[in-house]
Amino acid sequence: MKRHILISTIAMALAAGFTSCEDFLDKQPLDKVSTSTFWQTTKDADKALTAAYASFRNGTFSAVPAGGPCTEQECLSDNAVTRGAHSAIQQGGINPSTGGLLNDLWDDSYKGIAAANYFLDNFDKVRDLYSEVDFNKLKAEALFIRTFYYNELVVHYGAVPMMLHSAKLGDGFEKLPRSPRAEVISQMLDDIDFAIEWLPNVAYTDGHAVKGSAVVLKCRILLNDQRYADAAKLAGDFIHDPANPFKLADDYAGIFFGGQINNPEIMFSIQFTAPDDFHALDQMVASRMTIFPSYNLRAAYEEGDPRIKMTMYEAGDPWVSNDKTGKFEDDGNRAEGLVPFTGMAFKKYVNPTIMAPKASTLSDQHIVKMRYADLLLMYAEAMFESGQGGDPKALAALNAVRQRPGVNMPPKTELTRENIRNERRVELAYEGIRYYDIIRWDIAKDVIPTVQYDESGKMRKFDGNLWPVPQKQMDIMGDIWEQNAPWN
Predict the structure, then answer these.
(1) Is residue 193 a part of any domain in this protein?
(2) What would the pLDDT profile of 78-92 be if each residue is shown by its tens digit?
(3) Are residues 142 and 17 in the same domain?
(4) Which residues form the SusD-like N-terminal domain (predicted)?
(5) What is the DSSP letter of 246?
(6) Could you tell me which residues come within 8 angstroms of residue 59 by beta carbon, excluding any fewer than 6 positions away?
(7) Pair type for strands 312-314 and 367-371
């Protein structure tokens, strides 16, 4: 039994999980480093924290050189359709053996947790080299990373095994139960509170989490748990604090391409810098068009909303990949894929100047995970759902997003559930937010079956708010775990 467990997802993730971040880590894996050669200097600690941040660098949570970016997961919601790797999940009828993202999100989350735990287990060895403020700041970053991954696991799988330390042989991790959802949430809130206390209240610039990043993450956890009053207070206190360093950006499109450096709205992102550090977003999204807007998303925009043209291409729009007509259409199309059956393709995140991106295209757009508009809209929602929707500050938050420079949509005169939810949909389209929203609102079962996913008219099937635990993990754990319904 133990021999098989050692090659399981948890065992691999918790024993190692450190690759592709620093030459040192590639040459001398951290799980094999002797205490006589490592954890002696602040540089050692920096490398271990770098390994924890590097756990985001995959197709599940950001992007990779030769594969689809995490933004393709928008097809899990009613906002998008794919003809790529997530087709099986999109169509419905998944099961514990479906594989793909159902396995990858589990595996990659536990690898990230392993990297954070390794740092947290060993950081005390160099405590004397730091001031209290600097020591707790780095610890807070690791806790932020671990909390981020546990939140992903809880949303997708519900109860999950909770590891707060690195696994070692003989610890009995092969018998670890799935911790109840409430227990995991309690731990996440404890950890993220520490992060909020010790992370600096500064603008986000260099890829390291700041206080605002932790505030956004805690708001997400609270909203997922329907703790609306707590979320409203947390978000409101931060938004209205004169020391709040964030604001809405003047250029909506620039948040995703062209204006990301020191952008005042970005609160956390996974950063890339070509030519040494790049990914394939332009090729997969702009040329192959493996992910594209659904009819449903297009219908959600109000007439005259300029975010339409900053989010998607439509028939007849100017398009650099057509050297015959210069328009978004198949006549003269030089892209790798045909124009999708919906007649639309995503423009957000895309470099609009690259014609027919190829595998050699070195894309380096930062993958935005959190931004200020999301926090404003979470605040508006939390205020409304906690019975404070009549507070002018709540309506002002929603209208600030609608009337941001370059958008300038007419202000709403009252806060309603419908206009809050629709504003989140169009403002945050193709940012991986919509799926989490429709799950926590418990409307996925209603909206997913309304999505057409191919030109023949086939409609999607909804499989449930939770995914099954990957079968390979269930096989290893035997009768210790019970599978999620309806696959149990």
Answers:
(1) no
(2) 999 999 888 889 999
(3) yes
(4) 23-214
(5) -
(6) 67, 68, 69, 70, 104
(7) unpaired
